[in-house]
Write a structure and sequence with these properties.
The chain is an all-alpha fold. It is built from 10 helices and no strands. The protein has helices at residues 2-19, 26-33, 37-44, 47-66, 75-92, 94-102, 109-128, 140-144, 146-157, 162-177. It is elongated and about 55 Å long. It starts with a helix and ends with a helix.
Length: 180
């Protein structure tokens, strides 16, 4: 059962990679995956359900790649490591990263919040202890990770060398959180 779901998600990701979100139709999924449209509806309910699950799966993989950075090292080291792990995940998974940036309206906020909870917990504890500048939780993704997100967007467009800039990006993320 899980293999069939994953096969459908892999087929959807490949279709997105080849032709964007509009390329993912139930007919294209049945052709690409070799499964019936009934299977697709059974597993995901709809095309939107496929996108929602693909988003959740991709986001979970991204966060999982960053979680090993969260430990008791100095905050500056952890923040930089977290940013670098994010950039490395994007470099290793450009199709999934491209999907995450192309389909944010398919994200289930409660699923994202649950996946991101360990990261948020680490940040909040370090803010309370004074190791990090205190910023509202909503600012972590758009403000703190802003340099990383903009760099990733340009990388995914093929106009930016993410590997060359990774240390500068990690420094920029740390600069936002460095205690005053």
């Amino acid at each position: 059962m899980a293999d069939r779901r994953q096969s459908l998600l892999d087929a959807a990701l490949k279709l997105v990679e080849e032709g964007g979100l509009d390329a993912v139709t139930i007919a294209a999924l049945t052709e690409r995956s070799g499964m019936s449209n009934g299977s697709i509806y059974h597993h995901f309910g709809s095309r939107a359900g496929v996108f929602a699950q693909l988003y959740a799966d991709s986001y979970a993989r991204c966060v999982a790649a960053m979680l090993p950075a969260l430990d008791s090292r100095p905050a500056s080291t952890v923040v930089r490591d977290l940013a670098l792990r994010y950039l490395d995940w994007v470099t290793a998974n450009p199709s999934r990263a491209r999907f995450l940036y192309a389909a944010p309206d398919h994200a289930d906020p409660s699923v994202k919040q649950a996946e991101f909870a360990p990261v948020l917990t680490w940040f909040l504890a370090r803010m309370v202890s004074g190791e990090l500048r205190s910023v509202p939780p909503w600012a972590l993704e758009p403000v703190v990770m802003g340099p990383a997100h903009e760099s990733v967007r340009r990388f995914l467009l093929g106009v930016f060398d993410l590997n060359e800039a990774r240390e500068i990006i990690a420094d920029a993320v740390w600069a936002v959180l460095k205690p005053e």
